[in-house]
Amino acid sequence: MNQHVVHVSEIGRARRVAAPERAVPATGVLLDRLSRPLTDLRISVTDRCNFRCSYCMPKEVFDKDYQYLPHSALLSFEEITRLARIFATHGVHKIRLTGGEPLLRKNLEVLVEQLAAIRTPQGAPLDLTLTTNGSLLARKAEALKAAGLNRVTVSLDGLDDTVFRSMNDVDFPVAQVLAGIDAAHAAGLGPIKVNMVVKRGTNEQEILPMARRFRGTGVVLRFIEYMDVGATNGWRMDEVLPSAEVVARIAEEFPLAPLEASAPGETAQRWAYRDGGGEIGVISSVTQAFCHDCSRARLSTEGKLYLCLFASSGHDLRPLLRGDADDAQIASAIGHIWQGRTDRYSELRALRGPDTDAAAPRRVEMSYIGG
Ligand code: SF4
Question: Which residues line ligand 1 (CB under 6 A)?
Answer without folding.
Answer: 290-291, 294, 296, 308-310, 343-346
